[in-house]
Design goal:
alpha/beta; Rossmann fold; Beta-Lactamase; 3 domains; five-stranded antiparallel beta sheet; 10 strands; elongated
Length: 382
């Protein structure tokens, strides 16, 4: 890992635009170099830039030509961000084919430019962290599938896809399967959490994401020149670099990849269903938790009311007996009133017995609910 400041080349034949971009980048500890044409930029690559802000339309070498030459000379680490006033799909595809990483419109706001540079720095860091792990995993996968034919690769993919539990695992599996057919490409997977983009590199660049967003709006199977697009529910696959001189091979590849993408779509559908099932289980578990809290509150209130009723009954009996002393009642009158009090007390005791039975049933229900709640939480943790 280099400790040098992040190095940025600003390449544009418009001196005023270069001045504006350099001014916007000042104060962020970037090492900045300006170039008025593509030739000067290529001649200065020994300065090891991390990011090149490259104008597309320039006299002499265009930005596309410069990017192609940079990649042809093996400079794959430097990121190329095209700067252009045009952002139609063909321009984006041409920039992608040339090896570009990102795109920014001319005269973009300073905040947009700085954020793009921050993303480039983050991408470089992620690539460094993931490259060694990816190389090992890719080599292992390629070695395991090297003896399989075209059909065997599909069968291997389908078997392995059943073991994928996340979109990340499935997306990387698709990317690692494509070279078995002499192809490379980009993949977009969609589930309840959002969209997931994958490409040959560990981190999908902003330009690649933009292209995937464009092509997912095309038909189910779309081919233009050396590019093939397959759109299925939850899955979009863009394959580039087809051999246009071998239509039979393209036809076989299209059939095999259609099976591959359809299988991936089925696996993604199963993942989405599982996500929905887990969400529903979480909602049910939360409902049990709320019901459990309510039942606990009812049980506590019932116990408190029972105690209060017993106390009131005893207090009422005591008050009546004290009142008899001061009322000057005959023995028969006092006996009659005592009978009323005893009858009322007996009725209250009967009500208390029924209430106790209900309280016991309520307590048993609470214990069952607590057991369900504990089992649901253990299952969610597992």
């Amino acid at each position: 890992m280099t400790e040098n400041p992040f190095c940025i080349f600003v390449v544009d034949d418009d001196a005023l635009l270069r001045l504006v971009i350099v001014d916007q980048l000042q104060g962020h500890n970037y090492r900045i170099h300006e170039f008025a044409n593509g030739a000067d930029c290529l001649a200065a690559l020994d300065l090891q830039p991390n990011l090149i802000l490259l104008d597309i339309e320039m006299p002499g070498l265009s930005g596309i030509d410069v990017c192609r030459q940079i990649r042809a000379e093996g400079n794959d680490e430097v990121q190329v961000m095209f700067v252009s006033a045009h952002d139609d799909l063909e321009i984006l595809l041409t920039a992608f084919d040339a090896g570009g990483n990102d795109f920014i419109p001319k005269n973009a706001k300073k905040e947009v430019l700085l954020r793009k540079v921050e993303l480039a720095i983050e991408t470089e860091q992620q690539k460094r962290n993931l490259r060694s792990q990816l190389d090992y995993a890719r080599q292992t996968a390629f070695t395991a599938m090297s003896s399989l034919g075209e059909t065997g690769a599909i069968l291997h993919f389908l078997r392995t896809s059943f073991q994928c539990r996340t979109p990340e695992q499935l997306g990387r599996l698709i990317i690692e399967t494509l070279p078995q057919y002499g192809a490379n490409g980009l993949v977009k997977l969609a589930d309840a959490s959002g969209e997931h983009d994958f490409g040959p590199e560990p981190v999908c660049s902003p330009l690649e994401r933009s292209i995937l967003t464009y092509v997912m709006k095309l038909g189910r199977i779309y081919q233009a020149g050396d590019r093939l697009v397959l759109n299925f529910p939850y899955v979009t696959l863009l394959v580039t670099g087809l051999d246009v001189n071998d239509p039979d091979a393209i036809g076989r590849l299209r059939d095999h990849l259609a099976i591959l993408v359809e299988g991936a779509s089925a696996r993604m559908e199963a993942m989405v269903s599982e996500q929905q099932r887990q969400l529903q289980a979480k909602v049910r578990l939360e409902s049990i938790r709320e019901l459990n809290a309510l039942l606990s509150e009812i049980e506590q209130n019932q116990q408190a009311n029972h105690v209060q009723l017993v106390n009131l009954s005893e207090q009422h009996r005591s008050n009546m007996e004290n009142a008899f002393v001061h009322l000057g009642l005959t023995d028969s009158q006092e006996f009659l009133l005592h009978g009323y009090v005893d009858e009322l007390t007996t009725q209250l005791d009967q009500l208390f017995d029924k209430d106790n039975q209900l309280a016991l049933r309520l307590h048993q229900i609470l214990e069952k609910q607590n057991a369900l709640l504990a089992g649901g939480e253990d299952g969610g943790t597992a």
